[in-house]
Amino acid sequence: MIAESGHYALVLALALALIQSIVPIVGARWRDAALMNVARSTALAQLLFVAASFAALVTLHVTSDFSVANVFENSHSLKPLLYKITGVWGNHEGSMLLWVSILALFGGLVAAFGNNLPLSLRAHVLAVQAWVATAFYLFILITSNPFLRIANPPIEGRDLNPVLQDIGLAVHPPMLYLGYVGFSISFSFAVAALLEGRIDAAWARWVRPWTLMAWIFLTLGIAMGSYWAYYELGWGGWWFWDPVENASLMPWLAGTALLHSALVMEKRNALKVWTVLLSILTFSLSLLGTFLVRSGVLTSVHAFATDPTRGVFILLILFVFIGGSLSLYAWRAPALKQGGLFAPISREGALVLNNLLLTTACATVFIGTLYPLALEVLTGEKISVGAPFFNFTFAPLFVPLLLAVPFGPLLAWKRGDLLGAAQRLMVAGIVALVAIALVFAWTYGGATLAPLAIGLAAFVIMGALCDLAERIALFRIPLSLSLRRARGLPRATWGTAFAHAGLGIALIGIVCETTWNSEYIGSMKPDDIARVAGYELRLDGLSPRQGPNFREMVAQFTVSRDGEKVSVMTPSKRNFTTRGASTTEAALLTRGASQLYISLGDTTADGAIAVRIYHKPLVLMIWWGPVLMAFGGLLSLSDRRLRVGAPKPAKAAARALQAAE
Amino acid sequence: MRSRALAAAVLATSLMLGAMPARAVLPDEIMSDPAKEARARELSKELRCMVCQNQSIDDSEAPLARDLRLLVRERISAGDSDRQVIDFLVARYGEFVLLKPRLNEHTLMLWLTPPLALLLGGFALWRLGRRKANLPAGAADSSPELTPDEASRLERLLAAESAPDKPL
């Protein structure tokens, strides 16, 4: 019953989406408020039905109903409850259902909180949202029905892939999808603007919070995924330039550019046409990512060719939406008037430079990810494009970008003073030089580029602080006055500073981890001692242990430094009986921002075990950076100026009267 | 998405090899000369484990990756330069083994896209800037007329904002 209800709810959601696709547009043409308002109710009802459908699938997984194919293939009655729930989206069908659930959620949010939007804009936005939803409901119902029954229900399930049985699966995919799918809102706004033929600064003001929200989730989702890979895969890598990762990085790069160009549009009414294009591109890249991951084209071009139903369906969706929106753009964009002149050296100019570099970086990831596929399809020749290519091409793009980051917020709108900005960044420059000199002296004879990169990171971080110091006139006026100014600063300013500083933090982590990583690889027997980066790790012994749906071999290490015991680490190897697969559970010991990392290999006949121990200096900063960026985004999102329609305090209103240009 | 990569990586290794995965760089592979070992590690990062999804032989757990790692070390012991080792592997396994493709007619577009995107983007901006500068000041700055409804909304929005002359 539950499976059928879930399936039926999804069909009803499709029906609602079809209504929402057409009626509001007709209403907007006829200027009929009642018809336009249909969008609101259908969007909310759609959310209700998709949520019901999703809840049905969760219930089936939790109750281990193996008469449903999806549950049988991905669950096991002995699996812990958390993984029964997360297993819902640990497979193709379920993850697509999560995808449309989040799409419906965003549609519902616009419907519920979009009261301050002009009626026709809201009708258009929700209609476009429904077009996307319709396509994906059809995709699920036709090619990937998660509620399919099995005629002869088996007694036990096949269990979820062991690598996925981790807390990471509970957080990473939902976060990532909130980001991916969140960009559908900016897409819908862009297409709605093109349909209406009207776009202005107010439009940018409505789009920015949605973009920012999606960007925050995507940032956290990518960072979380990276940390998950780091501790789960067992060799301490945290970014692999894997096509699947690139699929999420592309919308992030484009979304970051969008965030900055929407700023120019909101403040200065410039870059309109470009912002609309970026909105379309960002969501198109999200769709492309969905295609790459969901069609199987990545595993092999041939896997795609042998079972093409799903792939071809998504490819079709891709063509319709990307082709359609870009055609609409080519047709209507010239009608949108450009506005807001600015000199090359200005805040706008800096943001344009940001956009140029970020979109180029995005294009680089795009070509690097798709080129091998295209080349194989066209010529049959197989090449690989991996980490060395991306590292090589990314550095020249990110060095100027990071150098420019501190300048941006210090330049004035319209016409900036580069020399003045440079003078105000003097402190940051000096700190950077000192950092370079110190690191260089400390690691004398070692890597030459790493100290420079650390200096760059210091410059970015100090630059963000300089900007804040400048705004509150630190040390130029009495401290109490500065503090009062600091409280008065818009939260968006704090957000910018945090996000930019986060970049520098992440860079320090990346440089330290890749340059000064030390490792020990060897076979150890009980009571053997390994020495890594000043730590002594003694293997106390190995012992078997029985888990709920696995058996594991646990090794116990006593970690000491200078003869003093620091901690005990217990890495293990797990064997999952149902799938016959094994996973390595690395043990991590955090010391400040650095980590010790142990992962186990195979045991040999004489009782020794292969052990890999890493010391990763400041590695945690790699993820603190994105968390800081997301926090900055959150601060910015909470800025009263972005919450359009927020009640105005009397004081601000009086000031605004004279200042409103 | 990472999850998919994890799953795919694990699936690829376990399906194709059917064996329990060994770990990357095993203790018995390490060369006695640290300088040569360091060279071997650097080279390993540039070479693809051909049966894995986008893993270098330095990262991969597959037996094939181990064979390649041993081969790289064998060539280094035999006195090959880095370039000769790479050439040897390409001759044996084709360009597919390189994670950073070499520049040739088939990879021209791959290598040219990033600089071209940057140059074309920069050029377009320069042209746009010049065209704008030549326009009379008022022409470019006109925005579409607001409907009365929008005008009143906009007023409300602007009023709700703190003084816009403050820096962002």
Describe the structure.
The complex is a heterodimer of chains A (661) and B (168). With 661 residues, chain A is an alpha+beta fold. Chain A folds into 4 domains: 1-165, no CATH class; 166-391, no CATH class; 397-516, no CATH class; 518-616. Chain A has 22 helices and 10 strands. In chain A, strands 2, 3, 4, 5, 6 and 7 form a 6-stranded antiparallel β-sheet that branches. In chain A, helix 8 packs antiparallel against helix 9 and helix 9 (243-268) runs antiparallel to helix 10 (272-294). The relative contact order of chain A is 0.07. By secondary structure, chain B is mainly α. Chain B has a domain at 2-97: Helicase, Ruva Protein, domain 3 (Orthogonal Bundle), CATH 1.10.8.640. Chain B has helices at 2-17, 34-46, 63-77, 82-93, 108-134, 137-141, 148-160. The radius of gyration of chain B is 28 Å and the shape is elongated. Chain B starts with a helix and ends in an 8-residue tail after the last helix. Chains A and B meet through helix 7, helix 8, helix 9, helix 13 and helix 14 of A and helix 1, helix 5, helix 6 and helix 7 of B.
Can you give the helix content of chain A as a percent range?
55-70%
Overall, the morphology of chain B is: elongated
Mean pLDDT of chain A: 89
| Euclidean distance between termini CA atoms of chain B | 35 Å
Number of helices of chain A: 22
Q: Largest beta sheet of chain A, briefly?
A: 6 strands, antiparallel
Relevant CATH superfamily of the domain at 2-97 in chain B: Cytochrome C biogenesis protein
Structural class of chain A: alpha+beta
Number of strands of chain B: 0
**What summary fits the major beta sheet of chain B?**
none
Which CATH-level-2 architecture of the domain at 2-97 in chain B?
Orthogonal Bundle
Total of helices of chain B: 7
- The total tally of domains of chain A equals 4
Number of strands of chain A: 10
- Strand residue percentage of chain B: under 5%
CATH class of the domain at 2-97 in chain B: Mainly Alpha
